[in-house]
């Protein structure tokens, strides 16, 4: 066996067809002997197809076979086809020539299909054999020379030269073998009488029939033939014709009559009675067909299947009572009936496909098989209407499902595709398969706001962190591509970053106030919010948001004129010579009140004094306000006086103690020193060149309004120092004014329109 296996040469034939940029179909053929051991290499499929090993791994290469038994497997590491189970050609194909395994190799990403044909060569592993252990004949001694006796043929399941080749009969004193060619290439074996028989000399003969095949070494099988010599029967039955033909529908019922064979024997009596038998060459035919021994009628005894065998050949023998016989051949042709629905096998299928896939992308490959013949086995497949897919057949029995239009997940996220395959028989038979295909999302949709412009209102004096309102955007994509984040775009409001006024929640789109708003500062402002999805790259859109601030009654009315500062009074000067109808002032409303809730108001006091000069005005207003301010500020001045007295007391105590200590230390120094003592006087106390009652370093600066009709102050210099010369008409007023509190000086300052009256002392 090993010698024969090693002598078989492996043949490879490669045929590759490129269908498109998305799929390819190739064909490669190998030839191997049967009975190869497990693990034996059939061929290097990767090398023969021009594929690298990494492609086999990344493409998830796998072998697909229609048979339930897997004889060949793929080694992805070596790229080789290996024997998985021993192959018996006779069990696989019987007498069929050639005998081959038809495989498909599927690759994914991109999807590719390769057809592999492995031809199984026969080896001489079966010897010829006879189905019976011995053959018995009863031959009349009157049998003439040349009489023929049909022998049982030997069986050799091998084919070709390894099959049955010759027969040998021993001894050959009375009988020799002759082979007769039959229709279909078969041969019948006949034992021919070449020497007259004499029962009285030899009543029995035992011969050995040997069948040999043509293999190396030659294998053989034998059977013994026992011959009993009978007296007087010198005519053998003869069939009317050597070949009979009959037709049979594959769905015919058991008991169907097929044909009747007939043979005649010219002998009379029991020697002329013919009996019919079926040859025991094939056991399965003995169960499938039966022949009536008396009439020669052949009847169907089982169920025939066109897909298993489309014809049957029977060998019928006719024997008389003397053992003489003849044979004929009956050919039964099975007519196909459309009794098989197409079978759909999914070779490969993508569970999902991107919505950006190109037109023509293969999403599934199917193998559709109908074992019926002719039109009954011709199949066409269709899919549902109104879907962006099409089904094509790149090769016999292979169908591919492809995209025919652009996909849009937002329109249809999933397709349930029904593939319907029908044959051309009458009536037509069909089968279907459902495919579920998910459309994977691509980030091709930007978030969209519910409104083109947002406008919101918020009352002033709001609490920082207040939620104003919410912007909302939606994204038609899915999962991460539809996850929307909200971002406040950069901008300014009155020169200040908008982020100082509002903030936006990235997840919810809630807009919160960062600070308290003031309607009196600005009545509204706007900014832009961007909605961005989580895709890569991300897509975004923006919207303008306008915040309008609603006024609240949080400000009291203000008197614009006349202007008031602090607690000062407002005065208007009216000359004594004013005529009737002279305009004194405007806006004499005592109380200014708004309409807010709650209402707020402001009060202004207008005092009109008739005078011709500022001192008169000052005198009257000073007397007027003194009593009022005295009561209002009494408590304040009492507290202030108490604090001043306490401070002065503490200061005096500290100064007295410090002087005492200083004098004590000086006396100690002068007591121990012989230096003369020179008294020192501050320049502020010298009396040289100074006249008047005020100290030298005592200066006054007095400023009045520019439109005073009288000059109340004059400046002069003496010894580089400023000396105040006071008009006698103003002396009394000035002294009284200096006695008043500092608050009255502020009132005068307000009345004079911002001029100053300063006193500096050293």
TrEMBL record:
GO molecular function: calcium ion binding
PANTHER family documented for this protein: CADHERIN-87A, PROTOCADHERIN 1 GAMMA 11 PRECURSOR-RELATED
Record domain Cadherin: where: 26-130, 131-239, 240-344, 345-449, 450-559
SUPFAM superfamilies: Cadherin-like
Keyword annotations: Calcium, Cell adhesion, Cell membrane, Glycoprotein, Membrane, Repeat, Signal, Transmembrane, Transmembrane helix
Cell compartments where the protein resides: Cell membrane
Keyword flag Calcium: yes
Name recorded for this polypeptide: Cadherin domain-containing protein
Membrane topology: Single-pass type I membrane protein
Main function: Potential calcium-dependent cell-adhesion protein. May be involved in the establishment and maintenance of specific neuronal connections in the brain.
InterPro entries: Cadherin-like_dom (IPR002126), Cadherin-like_sf (IPR015919), Cadherin_C (IPR032455), Cadherin_CS (IPR020894), Cadherin_N (IPR013164), Protocadherin/Cadherin-CA (IPR050174)
GO biological process, one term: anatomical structure morphogenesis
Transmembrane parts of this sequence: 634-659
Zinc in keyword set: no
Species, as recorded: Astyanax mexicanus (Blind cave fish)
GO cellular component, one term: plasma membrane
Main localization (coarse): membrane
Signal peptide: 1-26
């Amino acid at each position: 066996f090993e010698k024969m296996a090693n002598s078989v040469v492996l043949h490879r034939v490669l045929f590759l067809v490129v269908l498109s940029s998305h799929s390819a179909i190739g064909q490669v053929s190998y030839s191997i002997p049967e009975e190869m051991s497990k693990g034996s290499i059939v061929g290097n499929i990767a090398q023969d197809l021009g594929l690298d090993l990494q492609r086999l791994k990344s493409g998830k290469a796998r072998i697909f076979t229609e048979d339930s038994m897997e004889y060949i497997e793929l080694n992805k590491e070596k790229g080789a086809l290996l024997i998985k189970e021993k192959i018996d050609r006779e069990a696989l194909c019987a007498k069929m020539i050639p005998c081959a395994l038809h495989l498909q190799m599927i690759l994914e990403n991109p999807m590719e299909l390769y057809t592999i044909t492995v031809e199984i060569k026969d080896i001489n592993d079966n010897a010829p054999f006879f189905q019976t252990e011995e053959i018995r004949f009863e031959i009349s001694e009157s049998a003439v020379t040349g009489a023929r006796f049909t022998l049982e043929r030997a069986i050799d399941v091998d084919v070709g030269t390894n099959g049955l080749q010759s027969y040998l009969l021993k001894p050959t004193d009375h009988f020799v073998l002759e082979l007769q060619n039959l229709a279909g290439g078969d041969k019948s074996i006949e034992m021919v009488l070449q020497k007259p028989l004499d029962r009285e000399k030899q009543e029995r003969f035992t011969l050995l029939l040997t069948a040999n095949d043509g293999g190396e070494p030659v294998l053989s099988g034998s059977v013994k033939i026992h011959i009993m010599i009978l007296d007087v029967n010198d005519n053998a039955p003869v069939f009317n014709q050597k070949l009979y033909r009959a037709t049979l529908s594959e769905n015919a019922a058991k008991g169907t009559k097929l044909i009747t064979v007939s043979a005649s024997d010219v002998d009379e009596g029991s020697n002329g009675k013919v009996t019919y038998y079926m040859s025991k060459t094939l056991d399965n035919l003995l169960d499938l067909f039966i022949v009536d021994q008396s009439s020669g009628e052949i009847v169907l005894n089982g169920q025939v299947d066109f897909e298993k065998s489309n014809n049957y050949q029977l060998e019928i023998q006719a024997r008389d009572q003397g053992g003489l016989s003849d044979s004929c051949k009956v050919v039964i042709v099975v007519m196909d009936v459309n009794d098989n629905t197409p079978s759909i096998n999914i070779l490969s299928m993508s569970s999902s496909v991107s919505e950006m896939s190109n037109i023509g992308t293969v999403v599934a490959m199917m193998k559709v098989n109908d074992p019926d013949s002719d039109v009954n086995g011709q199949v066409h497949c269709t899919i549902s209407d109104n879907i962006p897919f099409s089904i094509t057949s790149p090769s016999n029995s292979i169908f591919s499902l492809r995209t025919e239009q652009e996909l849009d997940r937002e329109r249809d996220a999933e397709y349930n595709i029904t593939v319907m395959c029908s044959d051309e028989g009458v009536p037509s038979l069909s089968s279907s398969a459902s495919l579920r295909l998910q459309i994977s999302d691509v980030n091709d949709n930007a978030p969209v706001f519910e409104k083109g412009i947002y406008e919101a209102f918020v009352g002033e004096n709001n609490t920082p962190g207040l939620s104003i309102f919410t912007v909302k955007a939606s994204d038609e994509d899915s999962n991460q591509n539809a996850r929307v984040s909200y971002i406040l775009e950069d901008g300014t409001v009155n020169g200040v970053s908008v982020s100082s006024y509002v903030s936006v929640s990235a997840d919810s789109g809630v807009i919160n106030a960062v600070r308290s708003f003031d309607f009196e500062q600005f009545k509204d402002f706007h900014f832009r919010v961007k909605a961005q999805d989580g895709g890569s790259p991300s897509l975004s859109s923006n919207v303008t948001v306008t915040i309008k601030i609603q006024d609240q009654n949080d400000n009291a009315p203000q008197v614009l004129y006349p202007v008031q500062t602090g607690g000062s009074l407002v005065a208007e000067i009216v000359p004594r010579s004013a005529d009737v109808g002279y305009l004194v002032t405007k806006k004499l409303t005592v109380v200014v009140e708004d309409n807010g809730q709650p209402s707020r108001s402001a009060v202004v006091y207008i005092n009109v004094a008739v005078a011709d000069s500022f001192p008169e005005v000052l005198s009257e207003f000073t007397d007027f306000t003194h009593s009022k301010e005295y009561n209002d500020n009494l408590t304040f001045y009492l507290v202030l006086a108490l604090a001043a007295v306490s401070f002065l007391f503490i200061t005096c105590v500290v100064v007295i103690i410090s002087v005492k200590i200083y004098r004590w230390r000086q006396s100690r120094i002068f007591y121990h020193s012989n230096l003369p003592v020179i008294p020192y006087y501050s320049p502020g106390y010298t009396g040289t060149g100074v006249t008047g009652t005020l100290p030298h370093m005592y200066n006054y600066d007095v400023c009045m309004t520019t439109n005073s009709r009288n000059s109340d102050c004059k400046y002069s210099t003496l010894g580089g120092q400023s000396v105040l010369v006071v008009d006698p008409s103003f002396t009394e007023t000035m002294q009284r004014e200096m006695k008043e509190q500092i608050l009255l000086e502020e009132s005068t300052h307000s009345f004079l329109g911002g001029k100053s009256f300063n006193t500096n002392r050293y």
